[in-house]
């Protein structure tokens, strides 16, 4: 199969997805309200786009999208940890001396 089996690849991708959700979420949550956002947006050539991106409602929508990423990442982390706890409990029950 390769160095990592299918379970290890699934875990790796899940951890990477959770990290992506957290990183993108924090970036989208904080970035529209930073001074760097204003500096970057003002450099755009189209004044209509500048006006649109500096509008508080658009900044709020981008922040909301970041919040969605954070909630999604937290949900996936909770699901993954629950699955691991359940698998460990089943394994310990199967390995206990009185189990049969």
Explain this structure.
The protein is an all-alpha fold and 100 residues long. It has a domain at 45-86. 81% of the residues lie in helices and 0% in strands. The chain contains four helices and no strands. It is elongated, with a radius of gyration of 22 Å. The two termini are 33 Å apart. The mean pLDDT is 89.
Rounded Rg: 22 Å
Unreliable stretches: none
Taken from the alpha-carbon principal axes, the silhouette is elongated
User: What about the largest sheet?
Assistant: none
**SS strand fraction:** under 5%
Question: What layout of secondary structure does this protein have?
Answer:
Layout: H1 6-30, H2 35-42, H3 47-54, H4 56-95
Helix pairs in contact: 1-4
Can you describe this structure in just a few lines?
The chain has 100 residues and is mostly helical. Helix content is 81%, strand content 0%.
List descriptors.
100 residues; mainly alpha; 4 helices; 81% helix; 0% strand; elongated
């Amino acid at each position: 199969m390769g160095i990592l089996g299918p379970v290890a690849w699934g875990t790796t991708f899940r951890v990477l997805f959770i990290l992506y959700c957290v990183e993108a979420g924090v970036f989208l949550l904080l970035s529209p309200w930073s001074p760097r956002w204003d500096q970057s947006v003002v450099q755009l050539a189209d004044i209509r786009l500048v006006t649109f991106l500096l509008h508080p409602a658009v900044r709020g929508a981008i922040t909301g999208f970041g919040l969605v990423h954070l909630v999604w990442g937290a949900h996936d982390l909770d699901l993954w940890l629950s699955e691991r706890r359940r698998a460990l409990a089943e394994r310990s029950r199967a390995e206990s001396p009185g189990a049969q």
